[in-house]
Specification:
By secondary structure, this protein is mainly α. It contains three helices and no strands.
Length: 105
């Protein structure tokens, strides 16, 4: 029994020694990446969100003006892209179910 406990202790020490560099690197990045945001970060985020909202509003206004100026070729291309996206969605559903008709219950 004494040999077993010495082997287990030696194995545990070896595992700790091998895992130490990986854990040190993990903790180094975890301290930075998992820290809560600072007040300065929140101010910067608010400014960025306001800027993005303003840009999106301008884009919407310009797209409304352009809506009546779409050519038939662009409309057909947009239709084909929409059909392709919908088709891939339904194919993903079939693949996820692993059955063509419905879920196996």
């Amino acid at each position: 029994m004494a040999q077993f406990s010495t082997k287990v202790t030696a194995l545990a020490n070896k595992l700790v020694a091998q895992a130490r560099p990986h854990l040190d690197e993990f903790w180094k990045y975890a301290k930075v990446e998992l820290a809560p945001p600072l007040p300065a970060d929140l101010k910067m985020l608010r400014k960025s969100a306001e800027k993005t909202a303003k840009k999106a509003k301008q884009d919407m206004k310009s797209s409304r003006k352009r809506f009546g100026q779409i050519t038939v070729r662009e409309a057909w291309l947009n239709t084909l892209v929409t059909i392709e996206v919908i088709t891939w969605f339904f194919m993903g559903e079939v693949i996820g179910r692993r059955h063509l008709v419905g879920y196996k219950v």
